[in-house]
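1st attempt posting a full record on here, be nice pls
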Amino acid sequence: MIFRGLLRPIARLQKGDGFEFQGYFPAMSTLTEHTIKLTDHRDRNLLELTLAKAVLDLLRIDRIVLARVVSEEGTKRWLDVVALDGRGGGKVVDPLRVDFQTLPALEDMRDRWRCLQDRNLLEIAWAGEEGPRISYTPLYSDDSGDDQGIVEIHSGGALQIGQQEIVRDLLHVYRNMYNLLAYSDRDPLTGLLNRKSLDDTFYSAVLDELGEGGARDTNVATLPGQERRHRVPPNYWLGTISVDNFSAINDKNGHLIAEEVLILVARIVNNTFRTYDRLYRLGGEQFAVLMHCPDEALVLAAFERFRVNMEKFNHWG
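the predicted structure (as tokens):
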């Protein structure tokens, strides 16, 4: 097993670590219209924003936050992917560009963590029983693999039964779409992202650079001069990985053993890199990692960790 050395920066793939917008969202009068918008997407990265806008519009709440659990070298933290304000404005974060060390630890936000553990709606009345509430509910279903996240709703009072039902219905549609798109984006053997997903990422990035929007168009207003402010230096890196002598492994041990080798490699890739790095199986014995990092030395160190982890399992001879 070697890292082939095809490690090189890719300039200005994304717009920055997030973008901010101002203004109110167009009113959507029915749950059906929002459901249609949720099922229109072919990009998982836009589902969270669409879900948040639907809840904000239909419930007329004060604020909504969608947060994921992300990890790096065994440490887990909260990443607020979408945060929208009922008075207008908000933020959407690109997970590839976060500074992991600045994110809050799981134990620092105990109510969120309790919601994940209980798998039920949790309401916190922080200013008296009749006052404002923060409601938490799990973002993903139990069968979403390692995905963990919450929906955090800020409201002036307790959510009514009808409002809770709207949240449940929207989450049901969101989870179905999330799982469907995850299935289409994944390599069925290893569970890593597939070649099509890598192609789509590059396509969206090129459209962004050309100012054509593409798959990342969220139909929200941007601040004046934002496009220029979010152009970034070449801090994206693509590394490819290849299994040495894979044909010999297949010939000597058979197809099933060869597949087990690929599954093992994928497991080590998952355990080595960050949850917000993009991990791919390109086909055959070829893998790839797309990551954002401002320092080449840190990128090389990540792949060195992967090489060391692979050595521990180098017993296929």
